[in-house]
From TrEMBL:
Lineage: Bacteria, Pseudomonadati, Bacteroidota, Chitinophagia, Chitinophagales
Entry annotated with the keyword Transcription: yes
Gene3D superfamilies named among the record's database cross-references: Homeodomain-like, Jelly Rolls
UniProt feature coiled coil, ranges: none
InterPro entries, alphabetized: AraC-bd (IPR003313), Homeodomain-like_sf (IPR009057), HTH-like (IPR037923), HTH_AraC (IPR018060), HTH_AraC-typ_CS (IPR018062), RmlC-like_jellyroll (IPR014710)
Name recorded for this polypeptide: Helix-turn-helix domain-containing protein
Keyword tags: DNA-binding, Transcription, Transcription regulation
Domain HTH araC/xylS-type: 188-286
GO molecular function, one term: DNA-binding transcription factor activity
Pfam families assigned: AraC_binding, HTH_18
Protein source organism: Chitinophaga agrisoli
Amino acid sequence: MKNNVLIPVYDINKHDAGNLAIDGFAVGRSLNMPAHNNEPHRHTGFTITLLLSGQLTQYIDFEKHTVSAPAVILLAPDQVHQHGEEDTISESVYIHFDKDFLLAESQGMMNCWACIFYKRAIPVKAAQMQELMNFAGLILKEYANVRPLRESIIRNLLNALVMACGRLPQHNIAYMQLVDSAQNRMVRQFNELSDQHFRDKTQVSNYAELLFVTPGHLNDTIKSAVGKTAKQVIDEKRIMEAKRLLFWGEHSVKEIAWKLNFEDDAYFNRFFKKHTGQTPALFQRSIREKYN
């Protein structure tokens, strides 16, 4: 695997679809061709890949996932991934979308996205893939023609496809019900804000102020919903980004500490070791030895 100084971020809206283009959405079908990009990269939105035949290897956030068709591969925004050189993709359907595209039809959907996209590579049975392809096929058909209500129909079909992925028995995850309650709204807003600001806003009080609640109330609400305090969620996001930069990039520990808004690299070293049991340098060396 190649480690780049900078990790490219690909914008869904840069997808070249001519007059068929839809803001925040892209869909396509790949036939008898290898993975399109073998460099580490991220996407601005979510990705669903339905592997219909062949084999796919992806390194996702420094974990190797190899699956044979039929299988589903799920990627959340900002996850760094790279296709393996040994891929033998024969046929697949890919769908890229940002959260604003889907939320235009389903505000409550954000409540369970994190869990739906948590399990990244999922082998499925032929009957399960057929159910998913029923939705994906309708999306492909609707996307291919510009006509009234096209975007609204695609959004609703996509909503159904995401939920069908979420209820796959292979997930084995208890995710929140899509209830538009005050608690779920706060969880959704906190997740959105912490995804955007975990680098520069590292205290619970920062988010409590933005949400017009007390830090204690925010912590209690988040812990009740996900089993972790708000501070734990923030720290986990900082650790995950640190691991991504250590594995995929060639940043020094000092540079990573600066990017994640630590006062100095010594504090970053202590923080990282507290949460992982390893120093950043040891993690970088061991994880690269494992996958290179």
